[in-house]
Design goal:
By secondary structure, the chain is an alpha/beta fold. It has 18 helices and 24 strands. α7 packs parallel to α8. It is globular and about 75 Å long. Bound molecules: zinc ion. Zinc ion (ZN) binds next to loops.
């Protein structure tokens, strides 16, 4: 007797096979058969033409903290995600000494836009080492499956304390970090993650520790990972990190190397394709350097209290260290404004490059300004006959920094983004789920790929979209028995209606620890999500009911 049979499903298997109609049987958390009339079952679901696919593997999340208070990492499972990869960019919460916990949380608050109150109330600090963190997750239970990177910035802080964000590492520091990488790989890390990105700044705008690493340190740490014969090297690339330098690291570890965040920017239309081509050339030389791309326009909601979109502009640095009255004085300072204008003119930022027409007022603090809601900064500044930055900062000051703005920045030109997605080697990810919770919510990126890019625009087929969300990431991360529908594979399943699949627009809710706010979207067209054979979502959303069927994944292919 099977546990479950899903009848008359359009099987899309995750490895690119053309869809076909069949039944699929589940027993003991695994796929028992894909065949007509596979035998009796305790539960039968009539799929009646819905697509049955493997569950989505979300390769770029930041659920390290949320997992300790919310094992389901809502809202990912309802959006079809059955495996989540955490620790991206190297911003983890393990290893972490008790004395460094508050600094770690304050850094996460800044770099990943997480509410400090939510982190302080929410994180269960029931561990110190990386292996201890994985053990804690396994003990407490997880909703979806979890694969965890060991994170460079955390290693640096653990070994170097407050110096981690100040100086280069000594030979002794590097040797101690190498030991921690080996320990993490032995305990089941999916790889080693780091960042050199200018948009990654901790408390008071101080660069995150990994940004202080030199080539010698990077080489030593990726080599320590590679010694295990396993693991993925994950890097969020800053503008000074060249593809040849990354290729050298890929060669040093001999492992797949994921490079984030490859966005399309319409102001520099060829730059991402040049990088893409360099990575393709590296692969022909046997170095598996893979671009990590996003299928979502980068839309961010923000206030002038903490405007992440501007923080990679070098001249913005003093604003990250200032608060309250000091921040307002700075925004009013003509010297600060002149330096920011110069940075924008030279396109020095990673996210904002002067697209004032793509920044809009969403909600004004003062009801008397309601008429401005929905208008772009470009049009408002032109109407006032003012420079855009001056208008923007003057208005923000007038509203006591309370205005909610939105920016649709990079990755919004569909022809450019479509070209990135169409490249079959590119890894579609970058949901950043768990981070930047008040700026955007791309948890449903997989449903958006299936609905918008495959069905509506036809940039790729549904079979290819499913492969890119399942079989391909499983192969990159070395996740052996997931990411495809085949007898014997884990029963991580997504049942959806190809005619309606998608996600709604984001809306604001206040349900984090301490009542902190976040943006969420609602899945559309999802009929069922199963993790290891247990149903965790239906058409109404999450229905886990206290069960935690996920596994902490610790064994990866060599
Ligand atoms: Zn990230």
């Amino acid at each position: 007797m099977h546990d479950l049979v899903i009848r008359n499903a359009l099987i899309v298997d995750g490895i690119g096979t053309a869809r076909y109609v069949s039944d699929l049987a589940v027993s003991g958390g695994r796929i028992a058969a894909i065949a007509r009339n596979p035998g009796p079952a305790r539960e039968t679901i009539e799929a009646d033409g819905l697509v049955l696919a493997p569950g989505i593997i979300d390769g770029h999340t930041h659920y390290d903290a949320q997992l300790t208070w919310d094992p389901y990492v809502d809202p990912s499972p309802a959006h079809g995600v059955t495996t989540t990869v955490i620790g991206n960019c190297g911003f983890t919460i393990a290893p972490c000494r008790p004395a460094d916990r508050d600094l770690t949380m304050r850094n996460l608050t800044h770099v990943e836009g997480m509410s400090l109150e939510a982190l302080r109330r929410g994180i269960v600090w029931d561990f110190e080492s990386f292996p201890g963190y994985l053990d804690m997750l396994a003990r407490r239970g997880v909703g979806p499956n979890v694969a965890a990177f060991v994170g460079h910035s955390s290693l640096r802080t653990y070994v170097m304390g407050a110096d981690a964000a100040q100086r280069r590492a000594s030979d002794d520091d590097v040797a101690r970090m190498q030991r921690l990488v080996r320990e993490a790989m032995a305990a089941g890390a999916v790889g080693f993650a780091t960042s050199t990105s200018e948009s990654h700044n901790g408390e008071a705008g101080i660069p995150m520790p990994s940004r202080l690493a030199d080539a010698r340190e990077m080489q030593a740490l990726v080599s320590a990972m590679g010694e295990s014969g396993r693991g993925v090297f994950m890097l969020t690339r800053g503008s000074a990190t060249s593809i040849p330098a990354i290729e050298a690291l890929a060669a040093a570890c001999g492992r797949p190397t994921l490079v984030a965040a490859m966005f399309y920017n319409h102001l520099e239309p060829e730059s991402v394709f040049t990088l893409n081509g360099e990575m393709r050339a590296a692969r022909t030389r046997g170095h598996n350097v893979i671009p990590q791309v996003s299928c979502c326009p980068v839309t961010m909601e923000f206030t002038l209290q903490s405007p992440y979109v501007f923080e990679s502009l070098p001249a913005w640095a003093p604003a990250m260290a200032a608060h309250g009255e000091a921040l307002k004085q700075l925004y009013a300072d003509p010297k600060f404004r002149a330096a920011v204008k110069d940075d924008i003119a030279r396109r020095r930022g990673l996210l904002f490059k002067g697209e004032w027409d793509k920044l809009h007022v969403v909600v004004t603090a003062d009801p008397a300004h309601r008429a401005l809601e929905g208008k772009s900064i470009a049009e408002l500044a032109a109407g006032a006959n003012q420079d855009a930055l001056d208008w923007f900062l003057d208005f923000g000051l007038e509203e006591n920094l309370g205005t909610l703005f939105t920016g649709v920045l990079v990755n919004s030109d569909e022809r450019g983004v479509g070209r990135l997605i169409a490249d079959p080697d590119n890894h579609v990810a970058l949901s950043d789920a768990g981070a930047h919770l008040t700026f955007f919510c791309d948890v449903g990126f997989g449903l958006y790929l299936l609905g918008h890019w495959a069905r509506d625009l036809g940039v790729i087929t549904v079979e290819e979209a499913v492969r890119r969300l399942t079989g391909q990431p499983a192969a990159i991360f070395g996740i052996r028995d997931r990411g495809r529908l085949a007898p014997g594979a884990a029963a991580d399943l997504l049942l959806f209606d190809p005619a309606t699949v998608g996600r709604t627009k984001a809306r604001r809710v206040n349900d984090l620890p301490a009542g902190a706010a976040r943006l969420v979207t609602t899945p559309v067209g999802v009929h069922g999500v199963w993790v290891n054979g247990e149903r965790v979502a239906d058409h109404t959303g999450l229905i886990a009911g206290g069960k935690t069927p996920g596994r902490v994944l610790r064994e990866f292919a060599s």
